[in-house]
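stage 2 :: seqdesign
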C-alpha cells in the first residue's frame, strides 16, 4: 500500500490487443482455446508420469515439474485477460497488478531454470551415460527443483518490492494484455535506474546465462551424436533435440528481445506479440514437443486413457 500512496494510482488499464468487437471475440476464443490446450496437455503429462512407474526417472521428474509450472505460468495472465474480455472492464487494481508481476516473474524464472536443468540432464545422459545415475540421484534432482523455486521466488520478490517504491503520475494505461515489468517501468515518473539495473544483472542470471548453458549442452550433445555410427540413431536424437531446441530458442529469444535489447527498437505491438510467444505459445507447445516424439509418454497416455475408460464403465455398471 505504500507504493500506492506514493504513486497516487489505484488501478491500471490493460489496453490489450484491439478495441474492435469482432477482433476481440476472435482473440477471446483463440486465447481460451490455447489456454485449455496448455492446461489439459500439461495436466495429462503430469498424470501420465505419476501413474506410470517406468517414467519415474530424473528426466520425467523434471518434465512433470515443467508441466506444473507451465500451467501456473499461463494461469497468471490468461484468465485475467479472458475475464476482461467478458466483462468489458480492462482495469486491474494496483495491488492486483503487482501481484500479477510477482507471480509472472516467479513462474517465468522457474521455467527458465527447469529448461536449463533438463538440458543438463540430457547432456549427462548422452555425453557421460555411465555416470548418469551417480550424478542425477534423487537427492540431487529434488535439490535442483527446490533451488529453482526459491531462486526465482527471490528474484520476483526483489523486482516487486522495487516496483512499490516507484511513482506513477496519473498515466495508468498499459499497452499490454497483462501487468508486465517492462511497460510498468516505462509508465513510472520516478527514477527507474535501480529497477533497470536489477533487470540487466539479476535478470541476466536467470535468463541469458541459462540460455547460454542450454546452447552449450546441446552443442556437446550434437558433437557426441555425430560420432554415433547408426544413421537412424543420429536422426532420432537430432529430430528430438532439434524440436526441444526450437521451443527453447522461441522462449528465450522473445524474452531477451523484450528485456535485454535496446529500448529504441521496441514498440508496444512488438513487445505484446513477443509476450504471447513466451507466455502462451511455448507452454502450449511443450506437451506436444515432449510427448509426440516420446514412446514412453505416448504409452503412458494410452494406459491412462484405458484406465479412465475402465473406471467410467465400472461406475456406470455400479
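stage 2 :: out
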Amino acid at each position: 500500500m505504500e507504493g500506492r500512496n506514493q504513486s497516487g494510482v489505484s488501478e491500471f488499464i490493460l489496453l490489450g490487443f484491439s478495441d474492435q468487437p469482432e477482433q476481440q471475440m476472435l482473440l477471446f476464443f483463440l486465447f481460451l482455446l490455447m489456454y485449455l490446450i496448455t492446461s489439459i496437455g500439461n495436466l495429462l503429462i503430469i498424470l501420465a508420469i505419476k501413474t506410470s512407474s517406468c517414467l519415474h526417472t530424473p528426466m520425467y521428474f523434471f518434465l512433470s515439474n515443467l508441466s506444473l509450472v507451465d500451467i501456473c505460468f499461463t494461469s497468471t495472465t490468461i484468465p485475467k485477460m479472458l475475464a476482461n474480455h467478458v466483462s468489458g472492464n480492462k482495469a486491474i487494481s494496483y495491488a492486483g497488478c503487482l501481484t500479477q508481476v510477482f507471480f509472472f516473474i516467479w513462474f517465468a524464472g522457474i521455467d527458465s531454470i527447469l529448461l536449463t536443468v533438463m538440458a543438463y540432464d540430457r547432456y549427462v545422459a548422452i555425453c557421460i551415460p555411465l555416470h548418469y545415475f551417480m550424478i542425477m540421484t534423487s537427492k540431487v534432482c529434488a535439490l535442483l527443483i527446490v533451488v529453482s523455486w526459491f531462486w526465482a521466488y527471490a528474484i520476483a520478490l526483489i523486482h516487486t518490492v522495487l516496483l512499490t517504491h516507484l511513482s506513477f503520475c496519473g498515466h495508468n494505461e498499459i499497452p499490454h494484455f497483462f501487468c508486465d515489468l517492462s511497460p510498468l517501468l516505462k509508465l513510472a515518473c520516478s527514477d527507474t535506474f535501480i529497477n533497470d539495473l536489477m533487470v540487466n544483472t539479476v535478470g541476466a542470471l536467470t535468463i541469458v546465462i541459462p540460455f547460454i548453458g542450454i546452447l552449450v549442452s546441446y552443442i556437446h550433445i550434437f558433437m557426441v551424436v555425430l560420432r554415433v555410427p547408426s544413421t537412424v540413431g543420429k536422426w532420432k536424437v537430432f529430430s528430438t533435440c532439434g524440436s526441444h531446441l526450437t521451443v527453447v530458442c522461441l522462449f528465450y529469444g522473445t524474452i531477451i528481445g523484450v528485456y535485454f535489447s535496446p529500448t529504441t527498437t521496441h514498440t508496444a505491438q512488438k513487445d505484446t506479440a513477443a509476450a504471447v510467444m513466451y507466455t502462451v505459445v511455448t507452454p502450449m507447445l511443450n506437451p506436444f514437443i515432449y510427448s509426440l516424439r516420446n514412446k514412453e509418454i505416448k504409452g503412458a497416455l494410452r494406459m491412462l486413457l484405458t484406465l479412465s475408460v475402465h473406471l467410467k464403465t465400472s461406475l456406470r455398471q455400479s
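stage 3 :: structure notes
- The mean pLDDT is 86.
- The chain is about 75% helix and 5% strand.
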